[in-house]
Amino acid sequence: MLQNKKKIKLAKPEREAMRHACQFNASLLDYLRDFIKPGITTGEIDELVDYYTTKHGHVPAPLGYPGEHSPFPKSCCTSINEVICHGIPDSYALQSGDIVNVDVTSVVDGWHGDSSETFLIGEVSEEARAVTQCSFDCLWLAIDAVTPGCTVSAIGDAIKAEAESRGFSVVREFVGHGVGRNFHQEPTIPHYPNRQSRKDRLEPGMCFTIEPMINGGKRHGVTNKRDGWTVRTRDRSLSAQFEHTVLMTEDGPEPLTVSKRGPQKGHSF
Ligand code: MF3
Ligand code: CO
Ligand code: CO
């Protein structure tokens, strides 16, 4: 549930605090990337997230995050192949051919930085590479589509057009979100246009995520009944996702979670 109903616009010192939290979260992904190779288990990735975060005196936001079924049991989400999002780290060892999204969120001095990447493990299929590339390109097209005071639907319009032109689908059940002192807050950021997003505006000082989940097949997801979290594509097609936290400034969008060693805008997988 979104925790704050009113529009939150950050002043200068608060924007600095968000930059700091988001850059820490980016450094966490940079720390992880050398380990994300065939043979590592998702549980080991989770231990690395917990180690790096707590060593720096920060808090992993996913651990204990409330859900309808049960609190989230780990410090990050690891979503493999047909898993759309909210995969729970466990004893599964990554294999060549897998794609895995690692989604991390850090609480730094009370502020949240939220970002994720999909990693290609070893040699992957052309379909896996294409879905991953599409999600990455959609994220950056959406960042480039927003301007001060634009409607939230600028994001969904850009993503829907690109994904559908490549023959892929956009997940609707999970969305981006405002982020700041709360992990999830207003506004809701759907990755497709709808009635609400055509009304909501992105004004200077607002901070939010863009995190398109793109499926190789149909858009629908199904949540695992036993764990209450893992969401798979209904048709078991592949799904990929990238996420950045973005600050809207008076001059345009400022992506806050870009890492030094991660894929930069324009990257080809
Ligand atoms: N990090 C996810 C997001 O981008 C949310 C994960 S919720 C959790 O919004 F409980 F699974 F951590
Ligand atoms: Co998010
Ligand atoms: Co996230």
Walkthrough of the structure:
The chain has 269 residues and is α+β, with helices and mostly antiparallel strands. The chain has one domain: Creatine Amidinohydrolase, CATH 3.90.230.10. Helices cover 26% and strands 26% of the residues. The chain is built from four helices and 17 strands. Strands 1, 2, 4 and 5 form a four-stranded antiparallel sheet that branches. The chain has a three-stranded antiparallel sheet with strand order 3-14-13, with no helix packed on it. The protein has a three-stranded antiparallel sheet with strand order 7-12-15, with helices on one face. The longest helix has 22 residues, at 12-33. The radius of gyration is 17 Å and the shape is globular. The mean pLDDT is 98. The protein binds 2-amino-4-trifluoromethylsulfanyl-butyric acid and cobalt (II) ion (2 copies). The site of 2-amino-4-trifluoromethylsulfanyl-butyric acid has 11 residues, from strand 4.
Q: List low-pLDDT spans.
A: none
List cofactors, ions and other ligands.
2-amino-4-trifluoromethylsulfanyl-butyric acid, cobalt (II) ion
Question: In total, how many beta strands?
Answer: 17
Q: Write the CATH fold name.
A: Creatine Amidinohydrolase
Report on the biggest sheet.
4 strands, antiparallel
Portion in helices: 25-40%
How widely separated are the two ends? 34 Å
Q: Beta fraction of the residues?
A: 25-35%
Please work out how many helical segments DSSP would assign. 4
CATH architecture: Alpha-Beta Complex
**CATH top level class name:** Alpha Beta
- The outline comes out as globular
Q: Based on helices, strands and strand pairing, what is the structural class?
A: alpha+beta
Query: What is the H/E string?
Result: HHEEEEEHEHEEEEEEEEEEE
